[in-house]
TrEMBL record:
This is SGCA protein. Keywords: Membrane, Transmembrane, Transmembrane helix. The gene is Sgca. It comes from the Eukaryota. It comes from Nothocercus nigrocapillus. The lineage of its organism: Eukaryota, Metazoa, Chordata, Craniata, Vertebrata. Pfam families: Sarcoglycan_2_C (PF20989). The keyword Transmembrane helix applies. One of its GO terms (cellular component) is sarcoglycan complex. InterPro entries: Sarcoglycan_alpha/epsilon (IPR008908), Sarcoglycan_C (IPR048347). The chain crosses the membrane at residues 182-205.
Length: 215
């Protein structure tokens, strides 16, 4: 069931879609790369024309013809912050593409430890190839992730549970924390403000009573 809402009017609409997934005869792509598109929202990359443009740009960097999109995820689901309501700001989208061929030298260099070090220093990462994503897609190369899936296994992903708690007996709460000595802290919290208040009262009384004209 797909639930959508309008950001302008907050109207919601629900639709049930039946999706039939047929495994690929060649299996999942062995080589997968994840790109962070900083200048797009997730709904802008879901339409087929946008995904085709991204696939063509990724083929130019990967140098493979059998490249395909595996997953499209909003950056908000990965811990990113909601962008400011300023024109031109986007949420960001993580796009995972896969191929049965190895990574290009450009991608290997962009994800190398030397490139990660340059990113931590605030410098541009190592990328010697021509960026075919520009100017349509702004790629955050410091967030590039490369994954090689072993032969005969599926790509790692979240393992959904059954939604029912397993039977494990009665709930055993954690052991109580050891008793702490709070006397010193409570005395300091109470006596210090009282001492300061007494000193202020004495100072104020001295100024009002002993500093009068003629005394």
């Amino acid at each position: 069931q797909v639930l959508a809402y309008s950001r302008a009017t907050y109207e919601t609409v629900a639709q049930r879609v039946i999706v039939t997934v047929v495994p690929s005869p060649a299996g999942p792509p062995r080589y997968q790369g994840e790109f962070l598109v900083a200048n797009r929202d997730v709904e802008e990359l879901l339409p087929l024309p946008a995904r085709r443009l991204f696939s063509e740009a990724a083929r130019g960097v990967w140098e493979r013809g059998d490249l395909g999109i595996v997953n499209v995820t909003s950056a908000l689901h990965r811990g990113a912050r909601v962008p400011l309501p300023i024109e031109g700001r986007r949420e960001g989208v993580y796009v995972t593409v896969g191929s049965h061929g190895p990574f290009s030298q450009c991608l290997v260099a962009a994800a190398s430890p030397q490139s990660r070090l340059r990113c931590r220093l605030g410098q541009q990462p190592v990328a010697g190839c021509y960026d075919t994503f520009a100017p349509r897609f702004s790629i955050a190369w410091c967030n590039l992730s490369l994954l090689e899936v072993p032969v005969g296994s599926a790509a790692p992903g979240p393992a959904p549970g059954s939604g029912v708690l397993e039977e494990g007996g009665d709930f055993a709460p954690p052991t109580a924390a050891p008793a702490a000595d709070l006397l010193a802290g409570s005395l300091l919290t109470l006596l210090l403000p009282l001492l300061l208040a007494a000193l202020l009262c004495l100072l104020l009384g001295h100024l009002m009573c002993c500093r009068r004209e003629g005394l």
